[in-house]
Amino acid sequence: MNGGALPTPEGGPDHDAAVARMFGRIASWYDFLNRLLSLGIDQRWRRELALSARPGDGLALDLAAGTLDVALALRRVAPEATVAAMDFCPPMLAHGLPKLKGENRRRILPVAADARKLPLRDGAAACITMAFGIRNITPRGAAFAEMLRVLRPGGRACILEFGSGRERIWGGVYNAYLNHLLPLVGRAFSRDGAYGYLAESIRAFPTAEELAAEMRAAGFARVWYKKLTSGIVCLHVGEKAA
Description:
alpha/beta, seven-stranded mixed beta sheet
C-alpha cells in the first residue's frame, strides 16, 4: 500500500480528509494489527465499553465504528438492541460487513456519517459508544455537543481511548512502546505511516482528567472515567441529565 498525506494531531483544514484517507488505506490490516499490537486485549476493552454503555433494548449508536467490533460487542451484551454503526471512512465499514451474520445483519446498521453532524433526531439514542476515535475529531467539542443532542435523557456516552502519552505508564515502558515499537510494527505490516500518526496523536492527547473536564464543560451532567490495563486505555463515561 502507498503512503500519502497523513493528518496532524492538532488538525487543520485538510485534517478530516487526511484521516479518512489514512484509515481507508489501512482498513484491510486494521483488525490484524489491533490484535497484534494489543496482544489481543483490545477485545476485552471493547466488551468493557459495551457493558458500561448499558444499551438495553433501544437504539445504540456506535461512533467511529470502524470494522464493527464494538457494534458486535454491543449486540452480544444486549441482544435486543439495534446498533447504528457510524464512521466517516466507508472502507472501514465495508471491511466489517463480512462479520455480520444472522440477526446482526438486520440489527447492525452501518452508516457513513460525521460524528459532528449526526443524521439522527434529538434524543434518538439510548447510549453512545466510541472506541479509539475521539483523538481524530477536531474540534472535540462539536462531537460532544452532537452526542448530547442525540442522547435520550439519562443516556450514557462511553468513550474508550488510549491513555495520554504525557503520562508515564509501567515506568515508561508504555511510552517507549508508543514512541518506537508501535510505528515500527505498524509500518512493517501496513507500509503506511498511519501508526506513526497514531503514536503522535496519543502523545498529544489530553490526560484522563483533562478529557473529563472537557466533557463536563460540554454539558454532560455526570462524568467519570476508569483506567484499564494500568492506564494504557481509559474508559470515559458521560451521562446526559435526566
